[in-house]
Amino acid sequence: MRPWLNALVVLACLAAAGCRTDPNIVLLERENRELEDTVYELQSCLEEYQQALDSCRKQNQALAARLSGEADTVPQPAVKRPEPSSAPAGPKLPTRKPSPAPAPVPPDALVPPTIDLGTPLPERQLPETFKAPDQPPKPPAATAPPLNPALTPPSAAPSVPGPGKSSQASPPDAAEIAAISIRKEQTSGFNLDGRNGDDGVRALIEPRDAAGRPCQAAGPISVVVLDPALSGDAARVARWDFTPEEISQMAADDGIRLEMVWPQSPPSHSRLKLYVRYTTDDGRRLEANCPIEVAIGPQHAENGAPALLPQAVSGTGKAAPQWQGRAAPPQPATPETPRTTRSAAPPGRLQSAVVSQPEAQRPAWSPNRR
Question: What is the pLDDT of residues 304-319, one digit of tens each?
Fold first, then answer.
C-alpha cells in the first residue's frame, strides 16, 4: 500500500505543477490587447482624415469648375429686329452685326495715363504776365512829439500794483466763492517788539470756487480766536471784523493775508483755535478753522497790550481805520543815589561807603589869628 500512496502524491504534485500559468504569458496578452486598441484608434483617425481630405478635394473641384465656367461664358448676340414687309424698293444695305462685349481686363493691366506737366519754372521767377504791379510806398507815419511828464494826466500814468496787491483791476464777485481754506503753514503768531511773546496772530485765507481753484473776491470776514483750555466767555480770546473794503486792500495773489494784534491782554495759553467766517453776497456763510500755537511772554502783563495795526481792531471789535504808531515803552526811572551819614548808621552795622560831604562854610574875618 505504501508504494501506491507515494505514487499518488507524486502524480498530484506533477498535476499541480503542470496546471500553473506562466506570468510572462499574462503580460504578453495584456500588451497585445493594448496594441490592438491602439491599432483600432489609428484606423479611426485615418478614416476621419481621409473623409476630410475627400471633402476638401470636392470643394476645390467645384470652385475650379465655377471659375472656369465664368471665364468661358460669352454674351449672346442681340436678336435681330424683323424687317418690315413693306420695305422701299432699292439697293439692299448689308446688315450690321453688333460687336461682342469686350473681355474683362484684369486690374494689373490697367495703367494710368501719363500727363505731360511741362518744364517747371525756376524758383522766385514768374512771367511778366503774372507779376503784380508794385504798390506805391506808404508815406512815413508822422512822429508824435514826446509828451512832457509834467503834463501827463493821472489817467495816462501806468498803474503798477503795490507789493502784495493783486494786479487785477476788478475782483470777481463774492457769490462765486464756494469755500474758504486756511493755509496752516503761514498761520501762526507774530512778534512786533522783539521781546519774548507774540503780539498777535497772522493768517492766510484762500477763497476757492466750485472747482477748487483759488479766486480773489472781497467780502466781510470775521476772525475769532478761542482758548480750548477755558470754557464760557473766558474762552474767547479776541475777535476781529473786517469790511469788504479792508479785505480788498489786504488781498494778495496767493490769498488774503491778515495780521491781527491782541486787542486786549494776550492769551494765557499757547495752544489756541482760530475760526474764520466769510459772508458771500448772496448771504452764505463759509467757515474754516485750524489750531494755532503762539508764544506767551511776561512783558504783556507788565506793559499791557501793544498798539493796533491797520489789520487790528479797537476794543469794540471794529478795524482801526488808520495806521497807528506803536506806543513808546516807558522809560525806566533812574534810581537815586542813597545818602547816608555816620550818625544815620545804626549801631552794630557797617556804615555805607558813600558818606555825604559837609558843606563848606564861608570864612569870617577876625583880627586874631587862630
Answer: 443 334 333 333 344 4
